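Ticket 4471: requesting a sanity check on a complex prediction with zinc ion. Repro inputs:
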Amino acid sequence: MLRARAAATRRDLVAASRFAEIIYEILTRVLERYAEPLPLSIQKNSDSPILAAQQTRRKANLPPDQPIPHVIHSIEKAGVLVLALPIELEKIDAFSLWVGPEPKRPVVAICANKPGDRLRWNLAHESGHLALHADLKQLRAHEHDEADQFAAEYLLPEIAMRSELAAPITLSSLAPLKLRWGVSLQALIMRAFDLNIISQWQKQRLFEQISAKGWKTKEPPNLNIVREKPRGLRKMAEIAYGRPLDYARLAAESQLTIEMVKQIVEGYEEAASSADKSEKVIQLRKVE
Ligand SMILES: [Zn+2]
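Returned C-alpha cells:
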C-alpha cells in the first residue's frame, strides 16, 4: 500500500519535472531575449546543513535571529528561477531541478494550492537541496533529512528559538509564534523537540491535541499564513510584453495557448502588489 503510493508519487514527480522543464524552456527561450534572472549567488556548500543554512541567511543579508519575511523573494534574489506550475499534486508541494543548456540553471517549481506555511517549509527544504546536493534527480532519504535540517535552521534559527520557545509550550503559546515565523504549529513542535526544549512525552501530547482538533492537514484559518507567490518570470514577461501583459502575443510567440499562458502567469505576484517594488529579481538584457 505504502510502496504503491511512493511509486505513484515518484511517477508524479517525474511527470511534473518534465512539465516544469518544458514550461521553463518555452518561456525562457522567449523571455530571455529581453530579461534574465539575476546572476546566481547560491553556493554549493559541503558544510553541515545547519552551517549551510546560516551561510545562506548571511549571503541574503538576513539577520541571524529574525523571521524570513518572504522565502520566495530570498530565493529569487539569489538568482534561482521560481516556476509556479498550474497543477495540483497530492504529495508534492515543490521540487527543484537544473534545467537548460550548460551552464544549467536551478529552478524551484511550486505546485498550486498548498497552505502557505507548508509552502514556505518546502521552499526552504528545496533551497537546502540546491545548497547541499549535486544530483537532484536521485535524492536519497538521508539527503531529504539534511534538507529538512537546513529548512529548520533557515526558517527557525536555533539562536532565536532558544529564547522564543519558552516553557510552558502549549498550542496557545505556539499560535503567535506560528504567525511570526510563518511555519506550521507542527513544525514549531518538532523544532522544540529537536532542540530538546520539550520532551518526547510533551511532543506526543501536543501532536495528540493537533489531531483531536483536526489540524493535522489543515491548521486553523485564524492562523493562516498567506501563500507566497514568485514574481521573477512575470516581471520578465511584463518587460517583454508590456503591462497589462499582452497574453495573445506571449502565447503566439511561445506557441502555447492563451489559456495556458494565463494559468501560468496567474501563479505570480503582480508588480503592483509586490511588497517592495524596488527589489530586483531580474536584469535587463539588450535585444540584439
Ligand atoms: Zn527533499
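Notes from triage: The pocket of zinc ion is lined by residues 125, 129, 139, 144, 147 (CB under 6 Å). Leaving this open until the requester confirms.
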